[in-house]
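__Record contents__

***
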Amino acid sequence: MAFRVHLSTGDHLLGYVAKDDAFLAEGGDWDCFVVYIFRPGDPDRIYTHDDLLVPPLLVSRQVWTYGLFDVSEPVSITFDRVPDRHCFRSLTGWQIESDLTKTVSDHFTEYCEPCAYSSPCGIHAATTFAGVEGRICETLGLDELTAEASSPQPIASSSALHAPPSPTVDAMAFGI
């Protein structure tokens, strides 16, 4: 599924949901998506991993809830190949399994499986709304986030579960 990435600058980029069944804890806890965000360019080209603006990201529904990612307007892109597994660098160097054993690895897949390094390699953590926009702005050399962007409001939710993220948080990792 393709989507638009709306930046606080008023610009937008194109993105793609590579996987919709990823998780950050053994047993399927903390569901997330593997997303690609592409460099600006011809939207009619066939996209490859060389076109990624940032390495693959693990994100929750938050980025859609706060309006950073948008599927309300049809977006059509062609992506060359989505691998069966992606590589993500571990922030802790270990993972706790469902039987409470500890698996040590520097890299994990989007399914919490230890893996060898491969490029492009993201971070094995849920990247927040502010973290996604911050990484994009840093890579593109754009100014820091505006005050409005660093205090996003949910689009269609009054739930306390959707409290605005801290603009200083880039990613959240979980461990016991």
Observations:
- DSSP finds three helices and 14 strands in the chain.
- Residues 2-150+165-172 form one domain.
